[in-house]
Amino acid sequence: MAAYPITPQASLSEILSRYVEGGELKAEYVRVEGEHSAMTVCISASTVGARVFTATSSNGLLYMHEQLHWAAGSRLPIVMCCVNRGVGAPWSIFNDQQDSVSQRDTGWIQIYCRDNQEIIDTIIQAYRIAEQVYIPVMVCYDGFVLSHTMMPVHIPDHEQVRRFLPPYKPHTILSPEDPRTINSVLFPWRRENPQGVLCDGYMEMRYKLQAAFETARTVIADTNRAFAESFGRDHGGLIWTYMTDDAELVMTGMGSIAAEAVAATDMLRAEGIKAGVVGIRVFRPFPKDDVVRAFSRAHAILAFEKAISYGYEGALCSDLKAALYGTGVNAPIHNYVAGLGGRDVKPRELAEAGRNAVALLEGQTMKNETRWLNCYTG
Amino acid sequence: MQENIFKINEKEYIMPGSRACQGCGLTLAYRYLLKALRENTILTIPASCLCVLHGLYPITPVTVPCLNTTFASTAASASGIAAGLAALNKPDITVVAMAGDGSTYDMGIQSLSGAAERNTDFIYICYDNEGYMNTGTQRSSATPLGAMTTTTPINTKQDQKKDLVKIMEAHDLPYLATTSPAYPIDLYEKFVKAKRIKGTRYMHIYSPCPPGWMYPTKDTIRIGKLAVETGMVILFEIEDGRLRLTGRSKTMASKGKKQPIIQYVERQGRFKKMSIEQLNTLQAWVDRRWDDYLRRAEG
């Protein structure tokens, strides 16, 4: 275990220190001098066969960026919490998801949680997923909104967790008993080993990582199902839905903003608007088939995002449009950037955006533009 | 501890076919230090000449297990290996991080300082060839004053070499030593000693580099010896705070003579644009350092 304190992750690194020093948690805790080193310690400890954990936020995650790629390229089952926070400049300690969303293409599985119970349950699931597909898993949850609020949670029983999560069996262990050089230089072509066997080149290794992501969809769904059977709590596999069976207006988002869309749905339903929510729990691998099914009956879609890909729109919105392209789902998709740098997002604001989307369905044309929720735009 | 060339471990840990350059000082140093460290060692290395020496996947000439890591993270990687081995209750493996001066003096100094402050149980080796040699001889903060590099191509380096060994000494380590492949027994003895000590051990190897320093490949040992005989490089060890000169530096100290640095400088193409003023400044810097270390060794 290695961590460098950063707001709002800091309390997590403090509490884990207390567990380790107090003997409640059997672990080596390396109090590193920065997040780049935190991820490096996890990579190397995992390479010699240990189960590892770290957590960070915001600029800490960005400082790890090089090692995020290295961890994924090394195919190590590292689990990390990202306590989502806006990134500088200018400084903000408050919540949005620009930190983890901007790390989308580093080769990590990303799971977004909507409440505190889901966080603890997802961390347990994350190890089981990572250790099956050898892809690191980032468990993301909104800073302050979830990290600094309390709710009663069920702490899973130790023995039950042990049964659900068998001991880590690494695919390769760096050891003097079986000396090898790991992650050495590759040229663009495949190359024979001394026994004359043609081995993977760089591109084959990249292909295998992508192929593992395809497998990961099933593994994530199966793990969620197995968890629900063992512990009685089902958080959804790749996505979760709320009142979507007959919904004409479907709101979507990741993390706590999707939970707020549930409250907005209740408001809209009370007004007779058939609203529903698709919560994107897993951002990578993108739940491409699940979203096609979930949005197939939608007349209008609203994507609320606490991040933006500058120069275009929210990354979730782009991914969603790409997944729905050519599938017959032709509902207009409204993109809202919301809650950046901790700007409060209220369910009534999401409901208002829903009403506007419904009004636009009455013959008005819709422009492909990103709207900024609760933001003074001049 | 009296070693001689006939007592050195006969086993080889680098097989023929390494991708290092002809006359490479690093390869010589690596060969002897691996002999001293023997089996039950795990290495971690950054992108470097050493990484190139380790060969192209799936073939390596090195028989010691080795984990590649990124440029800034060598010592953190060793921290991770040490923590992982501790968690798995495997205490008898020697963990070694080895990087060049680029990774050690510049980008990796943060993770090195962090690991040393935590007294991580590992040996950190800096092989100092005084520049970013793997990427084509660019300036590093270990490059000496007056040296021409591909990023100081016209004016030469205007600044003195950073004294990283002093920075490492300030971490109050259980063992710190400087050595050179020009003196393999000195190098071997120091690694035999370092292996027996617990905590962070820092080993600094001055590693002559024929293409980077621009001298004929046959002269690696001669250049390495001249570096010591002119006082450019001082061989010593610091154990529990006590400094002791070793090998050739020790005999030079007792006989009270060292050669002028021009003997060293004139044999290397990298110094061909060095001015007289730079030469005098560098000589004064070398003299002051030499006197400092003599005083410390006597005190």
In short:
Helix content of chain A is 39%, strand content 15%.
What is the terminal-to-terminal distance of chain A?
47 Å
Sheet with the most strands: spatial strand order of chain B: 2-1-3-4-6-5-7-8
Relative helix content of chain B: 25-40%
SS strand fraction of chain B = 5-15%
**CATH architecture descriptor name of the largest domain in chain A:** 3-Layer(aba) Sandwich
Poorly predicted segments of chain A: none
Number of helices of chain B: 12
Q: Summarize the main sheet of chain B.
A: 8 strands, mixed
For the largest interface, the chains and their residue counts are: A-B, 43 and 45 residues
Strand content of chain A: 15-25%
What is the average of the pLDDT values of chain B? 96
CATH C-level of the largest domain in chain A: Alpha Beta
N-to-C SSE series of chain A? HHEHHEHEHEHEEEHEEHEEHEHEHE
Q: How many distinct helices of chain A?
A: 12
Neighbour order of strands in the largest sheet of chain A: 8-10-9-12-13-14
Topology:
The complex is a heterodimer of chains A (378) and B (299).
Chain A: H1 10-21, H2 35-47, E1 53-56, H3 58-63, H4 65-73, E2 79-84, H5 98-101, E3 109-112, H6 116-133, E4 137-142, H7 158-164, E5 181-182, E6 191-192, E7 198-199, H8 202-231, E8 239-242, E9 249-253, H9 256-270, E10 275-280, E11 282-284, H10 288-295, E12 300-305, H11 315-324, E13 333-337, H12 347-361, E14 370-372
Parallel strand pairs in A: 1-2, 2-4, 3-4, 9-10, 9-12, 12-13, 13-14
Antiparallel strand pairs in A: 3-11, 6-7, 8-10
Helix pairs in contact in A: 2-4, 6-8, 9-12
Chain B: H1 25-37, E1 41-45, H2 49-53, E2 66-68, H3 74-87, E3 94-100, H4 101-107, H5 109-117, E4 122-128, H6 164-169, E5 175-179, H7 184-196, E6 200-206, H8 210-213, H9 220-229, E7 236-239, E8 242-245, H10 247-255, H11 262-265, H12 276-298
Parallel strand pairs in B: 1-2, 1-3, 3-4, 4-6, 5-6
Antiparallel strand pairs in B: 5-7, 7-8
Describe this protein with a few key phrases.
heterodimer, A: 378 residues, alpha/beta, Rossmann fold, 5-stranded mixed sheet, 12 helices, B: alpha/beta, 8-stranded mixed sheet, 14% strand, globular
